[in-house]
Amino acid sequence: MTDRLDGSVRLEDVAKLAGVSLATASRALNGSTRRVRDDLRERVLDAAIALQYTANAHAQAVARGRSDVVGLLVHDIGDPFFSSIAAGVIQAADREGLLVTLASTGRDPARELQFVRALRGQRARAVIIAGSRVDEPAQMAQLAREVASYRAGGGRVAMISQNRLPVDTVMLENRASGKALAKALVGLGHRRFAVLAGPAELFTARDRLDGFRQGLTGAGVSLPARHIIRSDFTRDGGYEALQQVLDADLDVTCVVAVNDVMAVGAMAALRARGLRCPADLAVAGFDDIVTLRDVTPSLTTVRFPLEEMGSTALSLVVGAEGVRPRLHAVEGQVMIRESTPSLG
Amino acid sequence: MTDRLDGSVRLEDVAKLAGVSLATASRALNGSTRRVRDDLRERVLDAAIALQYTANAHAQAVARGRSDVVGLLVHDIGDPFFSSIAAGVIQAADREGLLVTLASTGRDPARELQFVRALRGQRARAVIIAGSRVDEPAQMAQLAREVASYRAGGGRVAMISQNRLPVDTVMLENRASGKALAKALVGLGHRRFAVLAGPAELFTARDRLDGFRQGLTGAGVSLPARHIIRSDFTRDGGYEALQQVLDADLDVTCVVAVNDVMAVGAMAALRARGLRCPADLAVAGFDDIVTLRDVTPSLTTVRFPLEEMGSTALSLVVGAEGVRPRLHAVEGQVMIRESTPSLG
DNA sequence: CTGTTAGCGCCTTCAG
DNA sequence: CTGAAGGCGCTAACAG
């Protein structure tokens, strides 16, 4: 019962109790390629259990030169979009025996930088950066630099969002999905739209809008500039944007928000004004957030397999490194539901 | 440009470039109490930047005997209840300069054990265990043992849920909140209830039910045993339980689910049967999940400040250790909304 | 198959 | 204030 000040038991204690050398104890306990005679192994294992021994992962990391943690960066873990992705990452990491350390950047690119640096300090085996990039070249350049030096140290990187850095990435087909949504809505008979477009600098928001507009154009439908409302990428952003739509008295039959939480905010704003969805206005979103599948009327959206995207990102980052960055494109699936009825 | 195989820069490289000793470089870079002459410090800092040096956190951890990570255990990070708590923990950890490694146990007590063990291996400074305990003495005993040996090694522990282990805990006042909800609903004129009670072994579910029942009793209202429906603690559990209520043809005016996601599932089941809430049946839940605040009709619930609970737990675990476990009780706040109209 | 012995990268007394 | 040297706990050659 070696009781050191910090109370933790060292491998040496185990070895001593088992009457073997440090090396043998190490080999018996922590997966080595080398074999240990059965009776010795047995004694070591027993000693370890008796002492409640747990290897010091830090010491192992410095000795082995690598660690078993991967970092995950998200914009906001409280946002269901990211918590679903996190669930996928964690589940996959678990299967690989990896621990994930999670950082929530609060959508601040500076904190993002700071965290990949911290993760580099942790010698994390890999880092996964989830969430839309922002159109600010200076920040992208800084991130690229930090990522490069992390990779130079042997770290692996994957991104979930846009394909804008030369690393493995799980890319959302935002443009294509916007286009598909437009076609579907036009197919339902809608012709006059407004878009709650989110921040102009956010690529995800922008791509969805661009795709949507392109889809409309392809169908011979136009989207006036004043029908594009900017606001935050959040529930409250959707709420405010819809108020603007109403206040500007835009003559539309359908409003599409660039994500589900905005769409739900928009629906709330409608109700607050005494209007009803879809009777007075149809609403659609993107993502198919699980928790939102039971809102009424049920929300038309473009589904992305968020959890799966998380586990895909992890697999990208544990597998053998490719010669060139791999790109895993994920298509969205249009889900027509009650919030956008046919205008037939 | 000392280019070692693993590409990472060591403190020695920085020292060499700055023309100082290892010790001086260490003191200049990583917060030491000792001061370094300004010009030398300057040179070291410059060298560090030039080389993109980042201290190896593992080496620091083994040298210092402590690390800067805290572990967070949740049942399911995809569940908004836990992602809100996680958001609070992470935000508070961030303020303390701590990194959070997150484990999602999938509600499996065995994995929970395994993770606190892993976190012990990481020499995590603290671990926060969130989520209801289960009434299985054997498992509680094992967890208690693992926790004890983690604490013996100097680790700090906090729990978010019940006060059932001798550690700092953020305790939800589930009984009291159930009672308060009962009183409020009775005050609205309801007398005949059914409870979607979740699993019997889950303390959170059980305490909410018990409190609710107690509140009814205090108001002279009874709750027949067959009005208590067991099911999973999930959206689907709520859905199925409500079907049972309907199939059993229970004559009730109000159904209360032991959490919000179950309540939403119940509302969905109602709609699926062509019934309406609250016209045909009132529904209430617990938690006040953010994402669910825009469902219609808006859901009566008992609000718990989830994020705040997360940050409280973190603060418990970083502050000075108390002589005895501290208990931080959190009261729920009854929020009457549209789903439970007055029967006046 | 086992034990001895260098490291891994950093911190921190201990001399100077 | 600075530098040399030992130690943190573990792994991985290297001998035996």
TrEMBL record, chains A, B:
Record carries keyword Ribosomal protein: no
Keyword terms: DNA-binding, Plasmid, Transcription, Transcription regulation
Domain HTH lacI-type: 9-64
Top-level taxon: Bacteria
SMART domains: HTH_LACI
One of the Pfam families matching this protein, by short name: Peripla_BP_3
Molecular-function GO terms, alphabetical: DNA-binding transcription factor activity; transcription cis-regulatory region binding
Keyword Transcription regulation applies: yes
Name of this protein: Transcriptional regulator, LacI family
Organism: Pseudonocardia dioxanivorans (strain ATCC 55486 / DSM 44775 / JCM 13855 / CB1190)
